[in-house]
Design goal:
- This protein is of the alpha/beta class and 341 residues long.
- The chain has one domain (3-262): Alpha-Beta Barrel (TIM Barrel), CATH 3.20.20.
- It is 47% helix and 13% strand.
- The chain has helices at residues 19-28, 41-53, 77-93, 116-133, 145-154, 170-178, 197-203, 233-244, 248-262, 277-299, 314-340; strands spanning 3-8, 31-37, 57-61, 99-108, 137-142, 161-163, 182-185, 209-211.
- The protein has an eight-stranded parallel sheet.
- α7 (197-203) links the parallel β7 and β8.
- The termini are far apart.
- The relative contact order is 0.11.
């Protein structure tokens, strides 16, 4: 079984003491691909550096709504200037070949309510950046779904994207699916107080679903409250499989394909093994024999067909038969004449 963790933060300081050892353990198991997500300039740089160290780790980079300057009494010019400067830095970071998306970006009115204008500006400008670079986006949306959907409709994202760690809000998910986005479920769907998780999991088609840990945060049951990592994805997959009446392998396989497709990650094809020398020699000899046979046919003289002359031998035989018939008739007439006499 192959699993794809579509959103994690191994660039977080909570992994500083054992990051390398932990990732070795993770990749030794079922988790084969990880998206390492940035949320500001520094974390985006670190996400890319880490992705360069691991063949099946990729990075997304961006400025999250919770990493923007807090602004009271309206957005100011110096704040606007800071936002544009940070986005240009993200543009530079995103040139790296291991960057597969812009994120996490979006709106959060739960933690910060005083900088809504700054959040909207940063969100819109980073959508433009994603379109310029032909990349999908990873959206952070908390208590701001109306503005988030409105911005996405006014600023279409060419390569679409995913609502990461999506809130269990029917209207948000319905709108997200309608405009062509994926939705990603994290550990919270296993929480005992997530009473509406089952019906929302049911409403999301499996081919539009991703799974993630959002590590080191939001560890699923039965490990809730501990530092989260990609190995906990099995609990999230198990929950989805149970609700959708599928096997865990089916959920893992489809979400792996979905994430690979969204982020444009192709599966590497295995190199063809070189042919053994004996097979090469045999093929060469066969080719040489075929060529020699063709050359021999070309050199052979062409046999001329001899024309048979027509003879009239059949005709005299026919005449002889005719004469015999006449003689028999004459004899018959003679017999009849004698008899009559």
């Amino acid at each position: 079984m192959k699993i794809f963790d579509s959103h994690a933060h191994y660039n977080d300081e909570k992994f500083d003491l054992d990051r390398e050892t932990l990732l070795e353990k993770i990749y030794a198991g079922d988790v084969k691909r990880i998206i390492n997500a940035g949320y500001d300039v520094l974390s985006s740089q670190l996400a890319v550096k880490m992705a360069e160290l691991y063949p099946e780790m990729y990075a997304i980079c961006g400025i999250s709504p919770n990493n923007l300057p807090e602004v009271k009494y309206g957005i100011k010019m110096d704040t606007i200037s800071q936002i544009y400067k940070k986005i240009e830095q993200i543009r530079e970071i995103a040139q790296n070949k291991k960057v597969v998306g812009i994120g996490e970006i979006g709106l959060d009115y739960y933690w910060t309510k005083d900088n809504k204008d700054a959040q909207k500006l940063a969100f819109q400008e980073q959508i433009k950046l994603a379109n310029d670079l032909k990349l999908p986006i990873s959206i952070h949306c908390r208590d701001a779904y109306l503005d988030t959907i409105a911005i996405l409709k006014e600023n279409p994202v060419n390569k679409k994207g995913v609502f990461h760690c999506v809130q269990l809000n029917r209207e948000l998910i319905r709108e997200a699916l309608e405009i062509g986005f994926y939705v990603s479920f994290a550990g919270y769907i296993t929480f005992k107080n997530a009473v509406n998780s089952d019906p929302i999991i049911e409403m999301v088609p499996l081919d539009r679903m991703l799974v993630e840990t959002d590590s080191p945060y939001m560890a699923p049951e039965p490990n809730r409250g501990t530092r989260n990592d990609s190995r906990n994805l099995e609990h999230i997959i198990r929950k989805i499989a149970k609700v959708k009446n599928l096997t865990e392998e089916e959920v893992a396989e489809q979400t792996y394909k979905n994430a690979s497709k969204l982020f444009g990650i192709r599966t590497k094809t295995a190199k063809k093994e070189p042919e053994p020398e004996t097979i090469k020699v045999a093929k060469t000899e066969k080719k040489q024999k075929t060529v020699a046979k063709k050359e021999t046919k070309k050199k052979e003289p062409v046999k001329k067909e001899t024309k048979t002359t027509k003879t009239n031998s059949a005709k005299p035989a026919t005449k002889a038969k005719t004469a015999t018939k006449k003689e028999e008739k004459n004899k018959t007439k003679t017999r009849k004449t004698k008899k009559d006499a």
